[in-house]
Amino acid sequence: MATYNEAASIGPVLGELDEAATTLRRAGIELDVLLVDDDSPDGTADVARREAERFGLALEVVTGPGRIPGAALLAGFRHVDHVDSADAARFIVTLDPDGRHDARQITDLVRMFLARRSGLTIGSRWVRGGSSPGTAAPRAMVSRAASELVRRSTGLRRVRDATTSFWVVDVEVVRTVLEDGLQPSGYGFYPAFVALAQAYGFSIDEVPIVYRPRYSEVASLSLRDVVDFQRSLGPLRQRVQEVRAKMRSDQATWASRSGRMRGQQAAVDSSFGADVELERLATADRFIGWIADEIAPHLGRRVLEVGAGIGSVSRALAERRSDIALTVLEPAANLFDALEERLGGHPGITVRKATLTALLDDDPVPTYDSVIYVNVLEHILDDELELRTAHQLLVAGGTLAIFVPALPRLYGSLDYKSGHHRRYVRGDLAATVETAGFELVDLRYLDVLGVAPYYAMYRLIDVKSLGAVSSTGYDRVIVPVSRALQRLVPHPPLGKNLLAIARKR
Predict the structure, then answer these.
(1) In 117-250, where does DSSP find H-type helix?
(2) With b meaning 16 or more CB within 10 Å and e meaning fewer, what string describes 353-364?
(3) Using alpha carbons only, what angle is made at residue 180 by residues 176 and 181, rounded to the nearest 5 degrees?
(4) Which helix (H) or strand (E) element contains residue 183?
(5) Closest to 399 (Cα-Cα) out of 370, 364, 439
(6) In terms of Cα–Cα distance, which of 427, 456, 447, 459 is closest to 497?
(7) CA 133/CA 153 separation, integer angstroms
(8) Contacts of 90 (CB under 8 A, 6+ apart)
(9) Which of 90, 116, 208, 321 could potentially form a cystine with 130 if both were Cys, beta carbons 3.0 to 4.6 Å apart?
(10) Chain centroid to CA 11
(11) Any idea what the Cα angle at residue 463 is, between residues 458 and 464, rounded to 5°?
(12) pTM for this prediction
């Protein structure tokens, strides 16, 4: 709590905090109280110490940075963030010390925060079930209008009360926003924090509260407060857009912050997280054949496939182009043995447990006529650097074939489990390929009909794995129809995947 001259209200507020602390303690959660006091001349800190001792609350008082809305909250966040890790906070609760927030409702906020695995849970006046008795109509209109301005300016989604300060916030959110360099900006601090938290991928939920009249008179908003708030929206909008662009290129980090996916482990290091799904996709002959048919005509004789998995596409390509000499790379420890078992004895195929960088280190001379990435580039954080490496291994005029998952809005549970850093859009993939030194030959979406079932399964229903029945049904029913539709519309406006063909100049 950030306080200044709150001696009249701090005692009752601490009494309500004691009730909340007692309830939370029964759930194994200890509640400590940090007061960031701006040297209140009415002795707020002394009253707080006496009352906390009477209630048996653990209270710490630190000196605030001055009477700037948001500045004291930032000072409190930094103080908590520097606490020794042995006593580190699991989450932080913020509320006004003037009695407008019923501290007993902290238990409701904490329950929602834990149940939803939220990054930030807001006690809201303006969602269904919330209310603000005693608030003058003009004041309520200003609050609602401010939240609407924030939503329109920053694209903030599904948050009705962006200006309140009654929160339960994960320490990771606090650390992320602090590292972003957020500075106090008057009353704009609170919506700025909320908008940035969402832009960085953290889930935000709202719990209805009763926003009560305070113990003393409500301070009037000055014209300067309103002007400063409006001025803060422009820079905030620009920063939110920058953060969202960054998260689009690293959607795995975004997903790790999502409440929907926090309970699920993504693929890490040298192990592929969706090996079961890969085995099931290997039986999707129509889908694998479609990919191979799209890529095979663009290949030269000496071909390198990066990240071959268990070799499903490799085998399909070898069947369609018996004239190629195919080298397949797979660095994942839990996939290589299966790959070697399936393709090790195949004529014309060489299997290697290595990354592209390791291959270049062994032989820096351009050797290959074609390099292929099928559902691989999305696993690589620095995809541009990866393609630059591929560029060095290709002979002049050599071709690059890329098949990747498309449409960031489809990013869901299966993407996260598989360790996907991103799903692509046309513009992003084109820019990456061209910046790496290639000339685009063809770039188009594939599998229009696959968009809806994928969205339903892995975004709406949040299925954690690919079932054998759904894989078979997709391959036998959706793929043939989607492929036939693609013949009628070769360059559809969207699709579940993207295919890029490029050439080394």
Answers:
(1) 137-154, 171-180, 189-199, 223-249
(2) bbbbeebbeeee
(3) 125
(4) none
(5) 370
(6) 447
(7) 29
(8) 29, 171
(9) 208
(10) 40
(11) 110
(12) 0.79
- With H, G, I as helix, E, B as strand and everything else as coil, classify residue 384: helix
Within 13 Å, how many C-alpha atoms sit on residue 310's CB side? 17
pLDDT digit string, tens, across residues 184-242: 667 789 999 999 999 999 999 999 999 999 876 656 667 777 788 888 889 999 999 99
Q: Which fold has domain 2-249?
A: Spore Coat Polysaccharide Biosynthesis Protein SpsA; Chain A (3.90.550)
pLDDT tens digits, one per residue of 326-355: 999 998 887 888 899 888 888 889 999 988
In the numeric block, which tokens belong to residue 337?
């043995």
Place of tokens 């200890």: 30
DSSP tag of 476: I
Which of 106, 400, 263 is CA-nearest to residue 255?
263
* 302-306 sheet: strands from edge to edge: 349-352, 325-329, 302-306, 368-374, 394-405, 497-504, 438-446
Going by C-alpha positions, the residue among 279, 278, 282 that lies closest to residue 475 is 282
Q: Does domain 275-504 have CATH number 3.40.50.150?
A: yes
- Residue identified by tokens 């070898």 is 318
User: In which region does residue 242 sit, left (phi positive, over 0), alpha (psi from -120 to 50) or beta (all else)?
Assistant: alpha
Please give the span between the terminal C-alpha atoms of the chain, in angstroms, as a whole number. 62
The one-letter code for the residue type at 348 is G
Q: At what angle do helices 223-249 and 137-154 cross, to 10 degrees?
A: 30
User: Any bridge partners for residue 405, and if so which?
Assistant: 497
CA–CA separation, 468 and 470 (whole Å)? 6
The DSSP 8-state label assigned to residue 410 in this structure reads G
